[in-house]
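User: I'm new to structure prediction. If I give you an amino acid sequence, what do you actually give back? Let's try with this one:
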Amino acid sequence: MSEHRPTTFGELKATGYETRTVKDEMRSNLVGKLRSGEELFPGIMGYSDTVVPQIVNAVLAKHDFILLGLRGQAKSRILRQLVSLLDESVPIVTGSEINDDPFAPISRYGRDRLQEYGDDTPIEWIRRDQRFVEKLATPDVTIADMIGDLDPIKAARGGHILGDELTIHYGLLPRANRGVFAINELPDLAGKIQVGLFNILEEGDVQVKGYPVRLALDLLMVFTANPEDYTARGKIITPLKDRIGAEISTHYPPDLETGIDITRQEAWVGRSGTCVEIPDFMEEAVERVAFIAREDKRIDQRSGVSQRMPITVTETIVSNAERRAIQHGEDTAVPRVGDLYAALPAITGKIELEYEGELHGPEKIAQELIQQAASFTFDIRAGGADVEDIINYFETGGALQVGEDASASACVQGFETVPGLLELVENVGLAGSAAGDGVRAAAGELVLEALVAQKRLSRSSVGYARAPQRGPEPGKGHQGFDPMGGLNI
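Assistant: Good question. You get back a string of structure tokens that encode the predicted 3D arrangement of the chain. For your 489 residues, that looks like this:
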């Protein structure tokens, strides 16, 4: 579109402008993006071979669709990015509440303006982001909210009878005309509201207060829902379900690397005044907490474990490391395993427990998740490494006391008293010899935490000590272990 855009209906016609339906418009723009190789959903990771192709098929087929998935699977973000498939701007009759197309207005207001002014009818242009309407479905949503209602004040001010179309106060659906209308958590809508949506999908129009007002809306309708709610009997009316063109299932990151990439992208870790360095093994340990939680039978997998968990955990461990760095006047904040225990609130708030989990309690389970994550991370990176010198040190009466708020240099100084500990973290690549004290301290804590998780060392409020006399074999589960506040010893 040129810089000077038409401002009247006559000028618009002179340009040869042709109106397209929303679905035709999105289909055409999608085809252009596919041909140019442009990324369709920037920032959405792990869906390139699964979800994205199905969305592409739905748009090409001009289907309304629903995204089925657990919380924290980027469903809402995907729907909001659909606006990128709309034209940059489209013309409407100036002042129209429902984005009337100048070539085919559907409201009484739009028709009257065209009849009164003809080619001199003023038009304005609305941006693509103004053509996206989103509504979170809740049980208290009414037909008036979604469709509209008669407005007595409009009638009184304009001298109209209540049955006049000019007295309508339009709801969200009509206001989304010529755009995308998204409903989150569709099953939470009352049945009568779902019937109203069914009528739009089936007949392409709406009615207000029983008056035979036909509004032939031009919409792409998209929805999100939890799979369990969507398929549960009585949650969604069958005719509406049948009219939705495509059901597309989302999922959590398929692998650890994708999860780490998502967390890296989303977590706020850049702090003013303090340099932040997150060792890669700490990124892995954080992500493993979520992955392990998604397999734990004590956690309700129907609710899922949101990808927001590792994101908020990362932000919390960085904050705890930042606090420690400020206290000790350190230039760089490096999160370590002890900071994961400071992030317990970010974990317990993201999990729903089954009955067995309620017996243990969320904090106990969260602590065990951290233990297992540390153990798995160590085994993957340093499985088979010789740790006998470390074990022997504690078995022969050695002990180690390092507070969770201790500076990085103090931690490294304490770890130097344990034969082979710092040499191990250097040899297996957890922290090279050129690494700073912060990374070396974090790596040493990971090794010790893994040995505690595997029952090869014990830890209490006093400090690390010899391995327990009895207990599971190394790496054989963690039932019965009660962490004492991470590394707060």
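You can read the tokens as a compact description of the fold. Here is one thing that stands out. Residues 470-489 have pLDDT under 50 and may be disordered.
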